[in-house]
Each structure stands twice: as C-alpha cells, then as structure tokens.
C-alpha cells in the first residue's frame, strides 16, 4: 500500500553544522546470544549482517546517551549549543513518558530552548530533521538540536530469539542551523497504520485493529511481514519520489537507510537499483538501534573518509507504525 507525501525540490534555509554519537560500553556479541537463546553466530550474521550490539548499563537511560552524543559533537566540531532554541528527540524508549528526554537534555546543558520528544520509531531521526529544516526555513527557529536515541535493550525480551538478536542501544545527534544556502534538497514521508500490528510495543492499550497484542511493553514483531513490506514497497516509493524531485539515484553519493537488516538493505538496493557499496550501514557492530541507526551510520561514513563535503546523502528511515521518512541533503562539513 502506498500512502506517502512527497515533495519536489524544496526551499531550504537550514544546514547540518555538527554531528555526534555515543554507544554504551557493554558489547553483546552473537556468541554471547548463543549462550542465552537457541541461535548461532552464523544464523544471525547470514540473516541480518549483525555481529554485535551495545547494551546500556542498568542505570543508564536514553537521556544519558543523548547527553554523551552532544558532548561528542561539541568536541568534534567545536560548535556551541548555548544558543540552541529547539531540542527534538526522536525516541521510542524515553526515560519517562514525561518529563520528556528533550527537557532532560535542556536541563542538563542549561539551555533556553523549546523541547519536544517525537515518536516515529525507526523513522524518527529523519522526521526530526524534516521538522528542523521546516521550522528554521520558516523563520521560527535558528538553531535546532535533533537527536535519535534508544535504549531498546530495556524493552527487549531476551528469551525471544526472533527479536533479541536484532536490537541494541545508541544515540546520534546533529545540529541544524540557519543557512541562506540551505542543504535540504527534497523530502518524503509516509505511513501505513493499517499494518501497525506487525511491529509494536503495547502501552496503555493492548488491542490493535480488533486483535489482541502480547502486552508487557516489550517489542514484538512479525519479522517476515516487515521484511516483505520494506522490500516490496520502499524501492517504488523512493523511485517515484526521486522522479518528482527531478533527481535520479545517480545524483546520490551515499544512501543511508535505517540499518534494520543488511539483507533487507541489499534487496532494497537491488530493486531501486543502487550500488550497495555506496550504502552506509551501522548494524554490524551496533545492531538495530532504531532512531539512532542513521546518525551512527553517518558517523561511520565520516570516520572512514567516505562522506566528503559536497556529497549528496539520501537518509531513509522506516519502521514501527508503520512509517517511513526520507531526506536528500547536501553534506557541507569537512
Ligand atoms: N536463531 C535461529 N533460528 C531462528 C532465530 C534465531 N535467532 N529466529 C528465528 N529462527 C528460526 C525460526 O524459528 C524459523 O524456524 P522454522 O523454519 O523451523 O519455523 C526460521 O528461523 C525462519 O524464521 P523467520 O522468522 O521466517 O526468519 P527470517 O528469515 O524472516 O529472518 C528476521 C528473521 C531476521 C527477523 C527477518 O525477518 C527480519 O529482519 N525482518 C525485519 C525485521 C525488522 O527490520 N524489523 C524492524 C524493527 S525496527 C523498529 O521499528 C523498532
């Protein structure tokens, strides 16, 4: 089912001026998982491309990961955040429903800013970027912090081998600032709520579309259905979006899809088509960190000298909801 909103080329007056990441110290490898559930390193690597994921400490929550990612960004790019006027945190695992993680970040750094958490699962970071670009370009804000951060280990059932091999914890943030020559070229977002029952965490309610869900607050998914939806729908969505924006995949230097599963990304790339070698993946050592996979993959691209100033990046998040969101941006940092 196709139900997206796609823009052509947009007028942007915002650009990314810094990026930072953080992952917790504890490593959970495929071999560790072999001791916890009936699985094997070979099965996990073959089906997902994941080798390791990071796990937050017992007393370490999403806001702690956000704070460390921001400190990393300040150190890497020598940016100042004291004049940030809006904080957007994309997360499905906030420390509390409220106060928001964004408020906890604001209080930690003593900022004078608006603060909001947004919930769009693995598409959250790209939705946050779209909001930051829109708000800055409309003159509502000048400097916005966008963070994708998760502690999925706290909502993962480590007796369920179909999910516990996938998820990990991590955070990534960017600073988006006013820039006359903005670098957001075109965006897309969409949703298929009708398929939401294939991937969920119950909250106050445990019935979706008349069907009773397993309701203890952990993540549940029908992996095969999600796989089919992502591979069957997203390549067409991306191609028709590029056409509307009068761009082609040849204009894209780096494709940065949500790192849900390397096999899924391979299948998506084959169908678009797009060379896998120009795709960035953060899952090998971090697993699926939901809203954090895209900034974590961008950091890997920067660290490995792949992303260069002037490159065009196609960021594409998708996941629970079901939702998806894309942004084609020009990278301006050295
Ligand atoms: N180790 C060994 N065997 C396993 C494991 C495991 N960890 N998990 C399942 N199996 C078995 C199953 O029991 C089944 O056995 P059977 O054939 O005897 O019944 C067999 O492997 C195949 O199971 P499937 O679930 O059909 O395996 P599939 O090939 O679909 O791979 C996977 C599972 C990796 C989860 C895949 O479906 C997938 O990646 N789906 C997308 C997941 C995703 O991206 N989710 C988004 C979440 S992000 C968010 O929004 C929070």
Automatic annotation (TrEMBL):
Domain Beta-ketoacyl-[acyl-carrier-protein] synthase III N-terminal positions: 116-193
Alphabetical keyword list: Acyltransferase, Cytoplasm, Fatty acid biosynthesis, Fatty acid metabolism, Lipid biosynthesis, Lipid metabolism, Multifunctional enzyme, Transferase
A Pfam family reported for this protein in Swiss-Prot or TrEMBL: ACP_syn_III
Any one GO CC term of the record: cytoplasm
Pathway(s) this gene product operates in, as recorded in its UniProt entry: Lipid metabolism; fatty acid biosynthesis
Catalytic activity: 2-methylpropanoyl-CoA + malonyl-[ACP] + H(+) = 4-methyl-3-oxopentanoyl-[ACP] + CO2 + CoA; (2S)-2-methylbutanoyl-CoA + malonyl-[ACP] + H(+) = (4S)-4-methyl-3-oxohexanoyl-[ACP] + CO2 + CoA; 3-methylbutanoyl-CoA + malonyl-[ACP] + H(+) = 5-methyl-3-oxohexanoyl-[ACP] + CO2 + CoA; malonyl-[ACP] + acetyl-CoA + H(+) = 3-oxobutanoyl-[ACP] + CO2 + CoA
Domain Beta-ketoacyl-[acyl-carrier-protein] synthase III C-terminal per the UniProt entry, residue ranges: 242-331
EC identifiers of the protein: 2.3.1.180
Keyword 4Fe-4S belongs to the record: no
A molecular-function term among this protein's GO annotations: beta-ketoacyl-acyl-carrier-protein synthase III activity
Localization per Swiss-Prot or TrEMBL: Cytoplasm
Top-level EC class as recorded in UniProt: transferase
Principal place of residence: cytoplasm
Function according to Swiss-Prot or TrEMBL: Catalyzes the condensation reaction of fatty acid synthesis by the addition to an acyl acceptor of two carbons from malonyl-ACP. Catalyzes the first condensation reaction which initiates fatty acid synthesis and may therefore play a role in governing the total rate of fatty acid production. Possesses both acetoacetyl-ACP synthase and acetyl transacylase activities. Its substrate specificity determines the biosynthesis of branched-chain and/or straight-chain of fatty acids.
Family that this chain belongs to: Belongs to the thiolase-like superfamily. FabH family.
Subunit structure: Homodimer.
Comment on protein domains: The last Arg residue of the ACP-binding site is essential for the weak association between ACP/AcpP and FabH.
Protein name: Beta-ketoacyl-[acyl-carrier-protein] synthase III
Protein source organism: Kroppenstedtia pulmonis
């Amino acid at each position: 089912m196709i139900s997206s909103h796609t823009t052509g080329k947009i007028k942007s007056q915002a650009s990314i001026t810094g990026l930072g990441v953080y992952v917790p110290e504890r490593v959970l490898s495929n071999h560790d998982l072999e001791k916890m559930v009936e699985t094997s390193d070979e099965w996990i690597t073959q089906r997902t491309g994941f080798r390791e994921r990071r796990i937050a400490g017992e007393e370490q929550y999403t806001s702690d990961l956000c704070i460390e990612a921001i400190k990393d960004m300040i150190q890497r790019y020598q940016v100042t955040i004291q004049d940030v006027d809006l904080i957007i945190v994309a997360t499905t695992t906030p420390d509390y429903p409220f106060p928001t993680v964004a408020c906890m970040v604001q209080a930690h750094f003593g900022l004078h800013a608006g603060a909001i958490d947004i919930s769009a699962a693995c598409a959250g970071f790209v939705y946050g970027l779209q909001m930051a670009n829109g708000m800055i370009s409309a003159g509502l804000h000048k400097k916005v912090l966008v963070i994708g951060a998760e502690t999925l280990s706290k909502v993962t059932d480590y007796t369920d081998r179909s999910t516990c091999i996938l998820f990990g914890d991590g955070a990534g943030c960017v600073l988006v600032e006013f820039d006359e020559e903005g670098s957001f070229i075109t965006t897309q977002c969409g949703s298929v709520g009708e398929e939401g029952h294939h991937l969920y965490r119950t909250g106050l309610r445990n019935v979706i579309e008349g069907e009773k869900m397993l309701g203890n607050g952990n993540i549940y998914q029908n992996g095969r259905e999600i796989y089919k939806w992502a591979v069957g729908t997203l390549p067409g969505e991306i191609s028709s979006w590029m056409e509307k924006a009068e761009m082609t995949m040849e204009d894209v230097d780096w494709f940065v899809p949500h790192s849900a599963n390397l096999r899924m990304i391979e299948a998506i790339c084959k169908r678009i088509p797009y060379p896998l070698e120009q795709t960035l993946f953060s899952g090998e050592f971090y697993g699926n960190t939901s809203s954090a996979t895209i900034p974590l993959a961008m950091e890997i691209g920067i660290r490995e000298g792949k992303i260069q100033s002037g490159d065009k990046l196609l960021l594409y998040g998708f996941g629970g909801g079901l939702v998806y969101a894309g942004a084609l941006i020009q990278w301006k940092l050295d």
